[in-house]
Amino acid sequence: MAFQVYDYRTTNRNVLVTPEIRARLYRMEPGQIDGRHSHDLGHEVFLILEGKAEFTIAGHTEVLGPGQMCIAHVDEIHQVRNLLPDQPTIMYLSVTPHIQPTHTMRPQGDAREAPRFQPNRAYHDLSANGLGVAELLESHLEAAEKLAVTARSCAVIQSEMAEKWEDARAKGDRAAVVEARNGMSDAIYSLHKCLYALDAAWNALAPLGDD
In the CATH scheme, what is the code of domain 13-122? Predict the structure, then answer.
């Protein structure tokens, strides 16, 4: 299957939505100001493609133009404004990771509004696949239990491989050191896959609590 190509001049939507990342080509209309907010778990990256925008991040304001990038880190309050009165500003943005609630609104000062669990239809590539709440709850709990089991297994493997690493290092056995390191890596890989699966189940379930 061929990969999809996106053109920022004609695309104005999320192009990838997973627990690991939400990526979007974003067209801000003339004079548009986005709401003041932060992200509880994600860093947000902004890259200006066309136009001019004012970014206020953690109390500091800068004006960015084409080719310039900035980052709002986890929990940093930020707001974006298109400075052009008669032209759009187009940017690429991404939030990593992308876990519900995806935005925490901050209308004034440091005060946090109640969490907003946006419905899945707000994201083009995120769908509950028509499943009901009961089925999504079951899927979520299964993912949580699998993560717990995998985490326990990972902890055991880390301990065993750490001991093997130290022993091999003392003996000057480079191949055994690499084997131990790779064993630790494989366990961490499996753990993260389970975590992503839990995140995906949660992102599908959480918005339904507002229905």
Answer: 2.60.120.10
